[in-house]
Amino acid sequence: MVSVMKPVPLVVDLDGTLICTDTLHESTIRLLHDRPLDVLRIPLWLADGKAALKRRIASRVELDPATLPYRADLLHWLGEQRAAGRPLILCTAADVSVASAVAAHLGIFDDVIASDGTTNLSGPNKAVALVERFGPAGFDYAGNAAADLAVWARARHAVVVDAPSEVVRRAREQGPVELEFPRLPTGWREWRRMLRVHQWLKNLLLFVPMVASHRLGDLETLGTLMVAFLSFSLCASAVYIVNDLLDLESDRLHPRKRNRPFASGRVPVWRGVAAAPLLLLASAALGMAAGPAFLPWLAGYFLLTCAYSMLLKRLVLVDCLTLAMLYTLRIVAGAAAAGQALSFWMLAFSMFLFLSLAFIKRYAELLVQAGSGQAKAHGRGYFTADAPLVLAFGVASGYGSAVVLALYLNSDAVMLLYRYPEVAGSTVPILIFWISWVWLQASRGLMNDDPLVFAVKDPASLGAGMAFGAVLALASAGLPW
Predict the structure, then answer these.
(1) Do the beta carbons of residue 108 and residue 142 sit within 8 Å?
(2) What is the CATH number of the domain that holds 159?
(3) Which of 74, 131, 459, 471 has the most CB atoms in a 10 Å sphere around its CB?
(4) Residue 5's pLDDT is what?
């Protein structure tokens, strides 16, 4: 009688292996988002051990396994192994409630072994549990970190997934490696996307008061504004990081935002948690160098953006008003750094114009989500059916900014600033054209999630901007002949 050998079980780690993130880190971020006061209790929970900490956090928040960033190539290979009759075991240091939810969602695992609130199933503890279950060299193991070396030492074969080169080298030295899945690229490009360096363009609004008052020749003020620009940019990057961390689930449900560094898992959550306070410290130091009048506005911007990330972005209409205020705050901060007063006209014009751009941002998101079959925008207070009304609000706000500009150009202040004030009036139809153009593009579904990013790439917008600047230069200096 011929005996048939049973296939060797394949044991798979969860955090950093099956998924491109760490469930404990994400659960802690979710706890901060949903129950911020409970975060203060983490040191007390940790005193009872890491397993107890994981259990208490997992009992207070719920991660949606459908939105987690899975390692697609590994998942495909696991499907092939299961089809070949190989038992698959999910074995992780994550709490058993988290692991069980993932296993139920995927439907490919025969069993789950995980931390139980008492034992933290990581490293040597995991190795002991697997040897007790399957015997020495009675299983193959897929992992990704230095802690998994203790498990690979007791396994038959190692499957190395997205591991650092040093871990790969040591895994090869201590035993046979069945398969290696290469690391996902996390170079400067991903860090640049994490910091959203392209969004620093918005902080050029700090220079608007200086340009509007015709003080471009004041080199000392220009230097101060450059320091203020860098301070605002670092602060903005810190806030973008915090916003992305708090918005992980919503971003993963968005057709484009799911590819952001944290949402996709290309940049670990812990790096964002470490980078944000460092950026804020650097921003505050530069803010102090920009002058005492500038620093309160920088602090106000930071607090308002935090309020937006934590609450205001979920309130219908309030979110767009807040975005308009954040744009306008940049102009106010620039005036403070330059030591000059702001006119009512500039503030009114800014609020109307930026409110229109904020509505464009929301309108573009609603169109994308409606196209994917969603009835409600996740994490926002809007239904996708609200899109036509949001369009109406935005167009009205944009045309309102043109009215304010026309009234300003007819004021006494213009007579003092411009040599040919009647020429400056030509900026009004240029602005009306641009407002109409960007809303036309938005209604056609061609608008980027951020209208200012769209504008710097759009030839018609760039042409309108150059025409606007040329008209103001002509009104100020006249023709050169």
Answers:
(1) no
(2) 3.40.50.1000
(3) 74
(4) 63
C-alpha–C-alpha distance, residues 55 and 117, integer Å = 5
Q: Which of 401, 394, 398 is nearest to 443 (CA)?
A: 394
Reading the block at residue 259, the tokens are 């590819």
Looking up tokens 């933290």 gives 120
pLDDT band at 119 (very low <50, low <70, confident <90, very high): very high
Distance CA(377)–CA(375), nearest Å, equals 7
Domain containing 64 equals 10-181
In angstroms, the CA 255 to CA 196 distance is 18
Q: Could you give the number of structural domains in the chain?
A: 1
For 38, other C-beta atoms within 10 Å of its C-beta total 16
- Sign, Cα dihedral of 229, 230, 233, 238: negative
For residue 286, the model assigns a pLDDT of: 95
CA–CA separation, 87 and 108 (whole Å): 9
Please report whether residue 120 resides in a domain.
Answer: yes
- Measured CA to CA in angstroms, residue 339 lies from 255, 288, 292, 414 at distances of 44, 15, 10, 20
Is residue 159 in a domain?
yes
Distance CA 204, CA 452 (A): 11
| Residue at 138 is within a domain | yes
- 396 within some domain: no
- Has this prediction a pTM greater than 0.85? no
